[in-house]
């Protein structure tokens, strides 16, 4: 599993590539809502969970997929971009796991991500 205490996902940008990378892992009826990519790693939001993808090694052929079900979220925090700080952040607190933090580029709609999570948590 990804060590979220020592590794963050930085500057995630909307990208459909990661939706394809997790397609084999999806359950019947599970649909990709949105996907994001950083330099190598990525995050996919589905209608059931968040899947964090960590490419390992020089070639990236070894992959770590961490499934983060919405049902285990106990709290979350969204920080939107500002005038000078163009990046936004999502911090999610999972029962038994702790905090997971994702950083997005300024063009990311944090309101939409917040609504998606709220639909499954509240």
UniProtKB/TrEMBL annotation:
This is Cytoplasmic protein. Pfam families: bPH_1. Residues 14-121 form the Bacterial Pleckstrin homology domain. CDD domains: PH-like_bacteria (cd13225). It comes from Pseudomonas silesiensis. InterPro entries: PHb, PHb_sf. PANTHER family: BHLH DOMAIN-CONTAINING PROTEIN, HYPOTHETICAL CYTOSOLIC PROTEIN.
């Amino acid at each position: 599993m990804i060590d979220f205490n020592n590794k963050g996902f930085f500057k995630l940008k909307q990208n459909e590539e990661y939706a394809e990378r997790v397609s084999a892992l999806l359950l019947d009826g599970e649909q990709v809502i949105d996907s994001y990519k950083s330099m190598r790693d990525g995050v996919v939001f589905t209608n059931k969970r968040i899947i964090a993808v960590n490419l390992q090694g020089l070639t990236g052929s070894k992959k770590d997929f961490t499934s983060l079900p919405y049902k285990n979220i106990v709290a979350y925090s969204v920080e939107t971009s500002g005038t000078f700080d163009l990046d936004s952040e999502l911090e999610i607190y999972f029962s038994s796991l702790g905090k997971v933090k994702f950083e997005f580029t300024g063009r990311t709609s944090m309101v939409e991500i917040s609504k998606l999570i709220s639909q499954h948590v509240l």
